[in-house]
Each structure stands twice: as structure tokens, then as C-alpha cells.
Amino acid sequence: MRAEIITIGDELLIGQVVDTNSAWMAQKLNEQGIELYQITSVHDDREHIIAALNEAFNRADIVLTTGGLGPTKDDITKHVLCEYFGAHLIEDQRVRAHIEDLYKDRPDVLNRLTATQWLVPDNAEILENRVGSAPLMIFHKEDKLLACMPGVPYEMKIAMEEQILPYLHSSFHPFIHSSIYHRTLQVTGIAESTLAILLDEFENKMPSGLHLAYLPKDGVIRLRLSSYGELSEAEMARYFAELKALVQDYLIAETDEPLEVIVGRLLTERHQTIATAESCTGGKLASLLNKHAGSSAFYYGSVISYDNSVKEHILGVPAEMIEKHGVVSEEVVRVMAESVRRLLGTDYAIATSGIAGPTGGSEAKPVGTVWMAWATPEGTTAECFHLGKLREQITDRACLKALVGMIKLLNR
Amino acid sequence: MRAEIITIGDELLIGQVVDTNSAWMAQKLNEQGIELYQITSVHDDREHIIAALNEAFNRADIVLTTGGLGPTKDDITKHVLCEYFGAHLIEDQRVRAHIEDLYKDRPDVLNRLTATQWLVPDNAEILENRVGSAPLMIFHKEDKLLACMPGVPYEMKIAMEEQILPYLHSSFHPFIHSSIYHRTLQVTGIAESTLAILLDEFENKMPSGLHLAYLPKDGVIRLRLSSYGELSEAEMARYFAELKALVQDYLIAETDEPLEVIVGRLLTERHQTIATAESCTGGKLASLLNKHAGSSAFYYGSVISYDNSVKEHILGVPAEMIEKHGVVSEEVVRVMAESVRRLLGTDYAIATSGIAGPTGGSEAKPVGTVWMAWATPEGTTAECFHLGKLREQITDRACLKALVGMIKLLNR
Fold first, then answer.
1. Alpha-carbon gap: A295 to the closest alpha carbon of chain B (Å)
2. Of A70, A196, A296, the CB nearest to B192
3. Residue B33: which of B175, B155, B167 has the closest Cα?
């Protein structure tokens, strides 16, 4: 069973919005055993949308669209779909009641434009969009199907989880092979090409239905084994175990979970807690650590000491130490980590201080130099990294290094 | 002059990676006066890549590809392009010297797989990839052109800025109409449909070459006027001024800059500084404020008080106050904002405390309730928001509300 996604909106093609929807939808489809063949982003343009629909229906059984369902003139998806499927718009009383309820405290929103949202194509099935005014529409084309959703990410997510995925499951259940497997290992401390040579023999003897992919990013390589229905779960597990044994020396995770989730899980299991003292990462590490539900079990807080005065007055880094060693130094990050651990009363603390650029670098400490310390109940360790030249890359990589270091300490 | 992007990689279609490249490339192309017609994401699969190339060349003059250029077996883009353009791989001495220099301190990386990276198609122009081992390739097909780049975002960005965009400019200069205009206003405090009714007359009298788009997100609507070569700069400016006058009451920005950039610019102009005290936003607001270069001029630091003990011990929120009013309350955020402003010695401070969920909500304070305070030299204001039901949505919206509030205070 094959699906395609068409994302509709000029904003995607002028770069005003990053399409985060497609990756999320792709994950969900794969989990359901539905292979996603292609993602296509098109303009809010009648001919363009129709051409994309024709092409997608030639290749796939299921077409999912997002975007272009607002009440304003620039949004034309519903009208184009009416034309494509030979439908007329009719008023839907259930949708109307829902929208009137949705905006019952905001009478100004119940205006003539919003009223166009309860006009729906007469040959589409209408599913409930619990959190928005754009109706979810299902169209049929012979034995194929189109599901049309809004582009606002959280509306799309609720629509997919509560309506579209259950609908696809009940419609296509007998045809979906539920044996798409993706399993991922995360390794660090080895170059991609060196890793590939290490795995050469393994790759050469893999059966044809098994695929190995290398996804390097910021010093961590995600190594993904995939099978689209050809292998049994047991065979997949056997190859995965073999792969894991081969990369054991570099392994930091046996799942595709984000590293901060792994840190959180390890800490929660041990009833331990963590804090951060961040300079160059400026809160990015803190917000990773509390990004996911359940973080209050292990994450206490942080002191973001972007300005040196904060390092001195709150974290108690002596001014003379900064004067002597510089603010990006082993001495300073050690004090930062130990201070925040003590101040916040946590088991662990991570501190970062570096030069994120574009200015502030020197010959001895160029842009990209980052000192990092991990304070633990058993003492403090520190390490210096050189993390590239671009501001965002440096801070992203610093967060990754901080988390990798923490995972290693917790797994020790 | 029309371009298309083809992003190549199974990881995009199983949702393991979000395609952030395309939006960035789209912006750059538009700035150069090159219209981006479509973005297509395809598998690491010979037939799929060839089909996508054929379709893209049918529609566009310039095709840009990213991804599939690593040295491992799963990356096949170079081989498929050789087949497509009838090329053979030959060793390129310049690329070889570059790669040998790139890894001069890491002899293990100079292995037989890395050596495949200096094999290049004999009919392609090779441009320098300053920061990686995959060569940038330009192929010609009649009067059309394909540029092939790696998928690692920072490599792609450097390739585009230093090599591909200048190449496109010099190749197509006489054919590029430099008058693509996009201008954006940001408004808040009005529903999308109400705004559209307010602008009905304006939209009806717009010339056919002018387009108005509504991009609502988290309570802010970006209102974009676009023209692809039909209008002069003066005409564009006139319509933009007219639009601005119509939405004056709701206007928070006259550019498409992220709100944190606007806050940073306003503060820097005034030589003023800011700090944050964050509970539910957990560092996200801090990391927004220092995301961009130049932030050390106005951003001092933050106290992330995820756990109540941090609110009490560092920010001096009295335990009785938390006991009496709850941690998500006007009283508490006021103390948080004023404390962090005083502690860090800044002109302004923003504090957040809310229930990001999924647990922790009550009837009186459901998930999504967020109290926020802005401490200023003229006193402190506070406001309560209800920001939805999903954790990420709540914290994103809270940051946006914090920044909108700050912009309003600074523009007062």
C-alpha cells in the first residue's frame, strides 16, 4: 500500500514556512505499514494542484494533502478538489454546529467568510476537525483515496491521529502489510566511511529485502536497517543484533529516540535529576531537556549566563578566573557546572561556554571552540570541542556533545 | 526563470529527517529573482530519481538536487546522474587534493570509500565544496541546468551561497527578472476571517499581478504581498503602504523578521538589555533571544526555574505565595520577572509560568494556562493566556506572546 503527500501553499515555495508536517506524517504512515513514496510541494494554483493530483494518483493508492483550506481568497484547495472530483459545495449542518460552537465566545469570527467553511463537497466524506474550522475531507477515485487536511501543524496532527489514520486502517486493513520495519542504532566517535568499511562484510551478505542507511549529523551517525515487508520480525531482529555487535564500541543508543529523551529516560529510571549552566548554548540545552512530557521528573532548571556578570554574580565564577583563563576555559566551565549543581541541588549538571560567533574568536580560541563540563556525584569532567564555523551548527553540536557525554556517564 | 528542488533520501520519506533545506533554498532563489515552482522528495532509488529529473526538466529551467552524495552504499545520486547524463567517473586531482587536506589530521578517514568521493562525472562542471568531501556538480541539458549538492544542511548552505547562487547568477543573469517582490506585515489581535473582511475592498481592487496571502500561526498573522515581475517597485511600495494603513491597529511588524529579531533590534538601538525567568517555556524563550548573531549586545541571561525549589531559592518567590496562589499565578510571575531583572541588572525581564501538560492541569487552571509578566523600568505588567492543549504548541505560543508583549512595550 503506497501513499504520497502533496503539501499546498505558496509559503512553502518562497521559503516562508518549513514543511515540518511531511516528516511527521511519514513516520505515522510507516508505523501503520503504509509506504510513503513521494512528497510534493506545490503552489496555491489550480493547474499545479491538478497536475500534482494526477501524478500522485498514477503512482500511489492513497494521496494526502495539507494546506489551502483557510477561509481567505488565497486558499483554493477545496474549490480545486470540487472541480477535480466533480463535486458541488453544500452546507453541512454538523460542520456548521461545530464551527458555531468553536467560536461561541468570539462572535466576530462567525462572519460570512467563516461561514464558507461549512460548505463541503457533496461527494466527499466529512470527518470532524475537532480543533479548527476547516473540514477534513475524504474523496474516492476508483479504489484509491484522497484525504485532505489543514496545513496548520497541530490541527493536522490531531486530524491524522484521531481521524485519518483510523480511517485508512479500517479502509485498507486487508491490503496493508504490517511488516515494514525500521530499526536504528546511534553511534559516535567514528567517521562515516570508516564505519562503512567496518560494515562492508555485513552489507555484502544482507538479503535483498534489507536496506542499511547512514545518517550522519553533528558527529552522531544514525544507522538504520529497513525492510518493507520482505523480512520477518525475527529475521529483522537477528540482523539488528548482528549489526549492534559490530558497532558495539561506538554505540550510544539502540533506538532512534532523540538523545535528550534517552538522557531523560535514564535519569527518570534512577530517580536522579539534572540542571544546566549555559553560556554559548543559551538555553537550547535546557529547552531540549524539558521539551518532552515528563521532564519535571528529572529536570530542575538552569542558569543561562550569557553575560559574564551572570557567571560571576549567580554562578560565583571569580572575576580573576575569567580574567586569567578567559570565559571559554576549563576552569570556568568546571565552576559553572559545580555551582549550578549545588545551587539547584541536582545529581548532575552540565555547563557550556564557547564562541558561537560570528565574532568573538581569536587565534588561540577560534569561533567554534566550546568548553563543556559534566558535574556528577563522583566528580566533574571537562572537555574541549571544535564544532565548526556557523553559529547554529556550533550550538546544535554543543547540545549533542553535552547529551552524548551525559549518556556515556550514565551508562558507565 | 523557473527552478525546482529535488531532495533525495529515504530518511525524508520515512520521517526520520525534516527537510529544512528546501525552505532555506527557496528564500535564496526568490531573493535572486528565480521562482521556485515545485519541491519533490524522492527515495534513494534509481527509477524514482530519474522519473523526478524528467518531470522537473519538463517544468523548469534549473533543477537543484540535495542528498545522496555520501561515500556509503545507500547513497546513489552521483551514479544515477552519471547514467542520466551519459557520463563516466574520472578522478579529479583538485577534489582529491581538497579531500586529502580536509582530513589531513584524520588518516583513518582517508580510506578507500572516501577515495570514491574524488571520482567525478567527466561531463560535469565541478565546484568546490569547501567544508565537505562530496563535490558540487553542475550538469547541462540543452539550455537547462542541474546543480547537485549534499544534503547536510550546513554544507548545502555554504555551497549555495559561495558557489551555486553566483554560478546561477552569472549563467542566467540576462534572463532573470529581478523584480520578484515579497513584502510581509505581521498583525495580531484579529481573527484571519475578520482580517480578510477588513481587506475585502483592497483585495478586490488589486491588479492581477499582485497576490495577497494570509499565514496565521499561534495568534500572529503574516500578511504577504507578492508580485512575480508584473509590478514595479514603486507600485509594490504603494500597495504595501495602503495595506499597512488598513491594518494599523493590529500591526506588530512591517517585515517578515522573526519576532525575537525585532525585539533584539529594538533593544540594541536603545542600548537596553533583557533577561528571562522561565518555567513552562523552559529555556525556549532564552534560546530564541540569543539565537541570532549580535545577541550579546542586549541579552544577559536567564533563570530557568522548572522546579519550584529554583523559584524559591534563586528567584526568591516566597513558598507561602506558591502555597496560596499556586505556581501558575499572577503573583508568582510578577516576582519572577522582577527578581530576574534585579538579579541580572537588566532593563527588561520576561517571566513565564504555565501548565504545558500533558499532566498538571486542573479545572481552574487547565493545561495551556500560562501566566506571563514583563518587568520594565516603568513597572511590571502581567497577563494570563490560554494557549491550547498540546505541549509544544503551548510553549511555542507562550514564547510568541512573550515577544509580542515585549514589542508592544518597546513601541509604546
1. 9
2. A70
3. B175
Q: Which of A255, A5, A161, A135 is nearest to B13 (CA)?
A: A5
Q: Does A364 touch chain B (CB under 8 A)?
A: no
Cβ atoms within 10 A of the Cβ of B379, count? 8
CA distance B11 to B44: 9
Q: Is A51 helix (H, G, I), strand (E, B) or coil?
A: helix
Scanning B199-282, the segments in alpha helix (DSSP H) are: 200-205, 233-246, 259-269
Residue B14, chain A, CB below 8 Å: the answer is: yes
Extents of the domains making up chain A = 2-175, 180-253, 259-410
Helix segments in A60-159, DSSP class H: 77-84, 93-102, 112-115, 153-159
At B218 the pLDDT is 83
Secondary structure of residue B104 in the 3-state scheme: coil
Among A193, A211, A295, whose Cβ lies nearest the Cβ of B114? A193
Please name the residues in contact with A403: beta carbons below 8 A apart, sequence gap of 6 or more: A259, A260, A262, A263, A285, A288
CATH assignment of B180-253, given 3.30.365.10, 3.30.70.2860, 3.30.1490.20, 3.10.400.10? Answer: 3.30.70.2860
Q: Are strands B136-141 and B144-149 parallel, antiparallel or unpaired?
A: antiparallel
Using the Cβ of A208 and the Cβ atoms of chain B, whether some distance falls under 8 Å is answered with no
How far does CA A260 lie from the centroid of its chain?
Answer: 12
Which segment of A5-19, A282-296, B214-228, B239-253 scores lowest on mean pLDDT? B214-228
Pick the CATH number of A259-410 from 3.40.50.1820, 3.40.50.720, 3.20.20.70, 3.90.950.20: 3.90.950.20
How far off is chain B from A300, nearest CA to CA, in Å?
5
User: Pick from B108, B211, B286: which is nearest to A282 by CB?
Assistant: B286
Please choose, from the candidates A118, A62, A46, the residue with its C-alpha nearest in 3D space to the C-alpha of residue A126: A118
What interface predicted TM-score (ipTM) does this complex get?
A: 0.89
A41 touches chain B (CB under 8 A): yes
Q: What is the pLDDT of residues A221-247, one digit of tens each?
A: 999 999 988 899 999 999 999 999 999
Asked if the A2-175 domain carries CATH number 3.30.930.10, the reply is: no
Is B281 close to A304, i.e. CB distance below 8 A?
Answer: no
Q: Which three cell numbers stand for residue B5?
A: 528542488
- Rounded to the nearest angstrom, the minimum Cα separation between B301 and chain A is 5
pLDDT of A178 reads: 65
Output DSSP code: residue B271.
Answer: T
